[in-house]
Amino acid sequence: MQVLTQKDTNPFPYSDSNKRYYTWDYYLRRRYGSKVFKISLDAGFSCPNIDGTRGKGGCTYCSYAFRRQTPASLLEQYQQVQQTLHHKWPEANLYIPYFQANTNTYAPVEELRAKYEVVLNQPGVVGLSVATRADALPDDVCEYLHSLSEKTDLMIELGLQTIHDETAKRINRGHTTAEFLEGYHKLTSLGIPVCIHIINGLPGETKEMMLDTVRAIAQLKPACVKIHLLHILKGTRMAEEYLRGDFQTMELSDYCETVCDQLELLPPDTVIQRVTGDGMPDELIAPMWSRKKFVVMNTIDQELFRRNSWQGKKYSG
After folding, report:
1. Which residues, 6 or more positions from 168, have their beta carbon under 8 angstroms from its beta carbon?
2. CA angle at residue 279 from 255 to 210, to 5 degrees?
3. Is the dihedral of CA 37, 41, 46, 49 positive or negative?
4. How far apart are CA 262 and CA 235, in angstroms?
5. Is the N end or the C end of the chain the one with fewer CB atoms within 10 Å?
6. Are 181 and 139 in contact, with CB atoms under 8 Å apart?
7. Hey, what long-range contacts does 83-87 have (CB within 8 A, 24 or more apart)?
8. Exposed, middle or buried, 33 (CB in 10 Å: 0-12/13-18/19+)?
9. Of the candidates 260, 265, 248, 259, which has an alpha carbon nearest to the alpha carbon of residue 305?
10. Does residue 227 contact residue 200 with C-beta atoms inside 8 Å?
């Protein structure tokens, strides 16, 4: 008698495994014919929410606001990560450099061009991901990004975190939802794909508020979404609030159920680049269960299977 597995009974069309959501890995393998590796980089950019342009001190959860050291050269960083990847996956030969730390469009165009293109010219690079804020997208930068998108697979990763302006103010986000939408539409009007970042578990937010954030971004039909878990990191202002007992972090079961509810609301063809995250072990204060990333991901898979559900099941576009 044949025993059916989660993979065999998976009704979600954009999957070749038990995943009932459109994973980044699945997208990349279909697009490029093999596994593609993302290489995270720190280009030494600042942030308008750190240097006083929009605010000081950064978002209250952000460790970059106080951890400022001169990074190694971009090529040194790139090559170090590449060597680590080759040690684990000897067949690795396709890469996407990811400008991750701080606000990576917050500089003159000539500086952006010099930093982006030094890694774009490396062998095996098939695209570029750039993390930034909606309030750091002046017209000349957007024009450059548009020209870049015509030469390579460019993805702009745009932090929203929440649609609730009262939460954004509490975490010192430094911009409103309206400003985010202005930046988002500025990019998409130029045909530039956007990955929207959100954070579950922000102080004061209920589950329904987290779902409202996803309902709002679902209507935008973004290319990609990253769902993050709030991490409490040593040295941040949010750590001070947490240690005072001002709020609690989410439990594993609540987080996974919330993510499944959110996946059901998102368009089925929006790529889900991330459903959780893991803070640096030596910096993480809470929640400690987040260190077991595969447990979190497996719990999400199991909950979708238990519900007989999948990404987009409740989407109404």
Report:
1. 161, 162, 174, 175, 176, 177
2. 30
3. positive
4. 31
5. N
6. no
7. 85/37, 85/39
8. exposed
9. 260
10. yes
Q: Please choose, from the candidates 133, 105, 95, 121, the residue with its C-alpha nearest in 3D space to the C-alpha of residue 43.
A: 105
pLDDT tens figures, 190-225: 999 999 999 999 999 999 999 999 999 999 999 999
Higher pLDDT, 50 or 8: 50
Work out the end-to-end distance of the chain between its first and last CA atoms, rounded to an integer number of angstroms.
41
pLDDT at 67: 54
> Which of 62-71, 103-112, 168-177 has the lowest average pLDDT?
62-71
Share of the chain above pLDDT 70, in %: 96
| Higher-confidence position of 8 and 92 | 92
Rounded CA gap, 30 and 122, in Å?
22
Tokens of 227: 């769902």
Separation CA 301–CA 87 (nearest Å)? 29
C-alpha pair distances (Å), 90 with each of 34, 226, 235: 13, 28, 37
Residue type (1 letter), 153: D
What sections of the chain are H helices per DSSP? 24-32, 74-88, 109-120, 139-149, 165-170, 177-188, 207-218, 237-244, 252-265, 293-307
Contact assessment for residue 167 and residue 202, using Cβ atoms and an 8 Å cutoff: yes
Tell the residue number behind the tokens 């701080």, with chain if given: 102
Q: Are 205 and 164 in contact (CB under 8 A)?
A: yes
Give the bridge partners for 198, in sequence order: 161, 227
The average confidence (pLDDT) of the chain is: 92
Pick from 60, 67, 19: nearest CA to 230: 60
Coil, strand or helix: which one is 166?
Answer: helix
d(CA 138, CA 298): 41
